[in-house]
Amino acid sequence: MYVVKIGGSLITHKDEYCSPNLEEIRRYAKVVKKIWEDIKGNLIIVLGGGSYGNGVPIRYNIKNSDQPWDPLDLQMMTIKMFEWISLVCRIFREEGIPCYPFQASSYCTTKDGDLSEYNIAAIKECLKLNILPITSGDLTFDKDKIFVIYSSDNIPEVFARSFRVKRVVTLTDVDGIYTTNQMKDIIKLVNKDNYREILNLAGDSNKQDVTGGMKNKLRALIRIAALGTECVICSGKDPMNLIPAIYSQTPPGTFISAWECEGSSC
Ligand SMILES: Nc1ncnc2c1ncn2[C@@H]1O[C@H](COP(=O)(O)OP(=O)(O)OP(=O)(O)O)[C@@H](O)[C@H]1O
Ligand SMILES: C=C(C)CCOP(=O)(O)O
């Protein structure tokens, strides 16, 4: 099983409001089509929030439940994310990939912002039919905070906890995790020994973003590595990068090797 998250910085115009990059989405669909016979039934795609996931919470004042919010507007995050995943499903369908949209607030809840309960029975049935589940971050109902805006980067953990996932691939608009602000050298390997140090190098997004850019991405993938699933963060500016990012023993970008937690050390 593979989980691929396509960054919102690649497939939307992230600084705008609900603005999809239709050309890029189609390019991704064509690349998935190339590997479809091999990977069908074993792939889940997670869409980054981009100009949907990061634009809507600001427009409707639903970024934090501790700020004034209007119950009439609570639905807007999910409504817009469903519009987003439905649009991508339509384009994938036009390119001949059978797929199905899954909206995250209906299959998971959080507690103080962390994953709490989830039920992916429907997604498992979809995979058995060789249909590609397409999902994303969302507003989640939260046991402590009423609701949170739950990043798409947090969604692969749901699957790593539910299946034996071989690799989680996160495609974004940079080549990997950079060592400095100059954006020149990337970290090739994150492991159990160096991940704390590397977390200090990862910062916020340089675009409109409510969920914490590279830092949240790396935190999410470290939780997954601690479950025994390896992860890759690499550039998806060329959608063809998806193929080595999934299959190669020496994938592009930053590789996060899997480790198992010992007691409370992770
Ligand atoms: N050390 C770092 N190395 C690389 N990128 C970094 C680092 N620190 C912060 N960043 C920022 O993180 C950004 C990538 O995260 P971002 O969340 O914007 O992308 P995305 O995942 O493609 O979008 P979305 O969250 O909408 O899916 C980079 O463009 C860069 O601005
Ligand atoms: C997707 C939603 C709802 C929030 C933003 O998520 P991200 O940009 O994918 O981190």
Itemize the secondary structure elements and their pairings:
Elements: E1 2-6, H1 8-11, H2 22-39, E2 43-47, H3 50-53, H4 56-59, H5 75-94, E3 99-101, E4 108-111, E5 114-118, H6 121-128, E6 132-136, E7 138-142, E8 146-150, H7 156-160, E9 167-172, E10 189-190, H8 195-199, H9 213-225, E11 230-235, H10 242-247, E12 254-256
Parallel strand pairs: 1-2, 1-9, 2-6, 3-6, 9-11, 10-12
Antiparallel strand pairs: 4-5, 7-8, 11-12
The protein binds adenosine-5'-triphosphate and Isopentenyl phosphate (IP8).
In the CATH hierarchy, the third-tier topology is known as Carbamate kinase
Helix content, binned percent: 25-40%
At the fourth CATH level, what is the homologous superfamily?
Acetylglutamate kinase-like
Please provide the ordered H/E string of secondary-structure elements.
EHHEHHHEEEHEEEHEEHHEHE
Strand order of the largest sheet: 3-6-2-1-9-11-12-10
The rounded Rg comes to 17 Å
Tally of helical segments: 10
Cα distance, first to last residue?
Answer: 24 Å
Q: At CATH's second level, what is the architecture?
A: 3-Layer(aba) Sandwich
Q: For the report, how would you describe the main beta sheet? A: 8 strands, mixed
Question: What is the domain total for the residues?
Answer: 1
Low-confidence sequence ranges: none
On the 0 to 100 scale, the average pLDDT is 95
The CATH C-level name is Alpha Beta
Q: From the helix content, strand content and strand pairing, which structural class follows?
A: alpha/beta
- Bound molecule kinds, no repeats: adenosine-5'-triphosphate, Isopentenyl phosphate
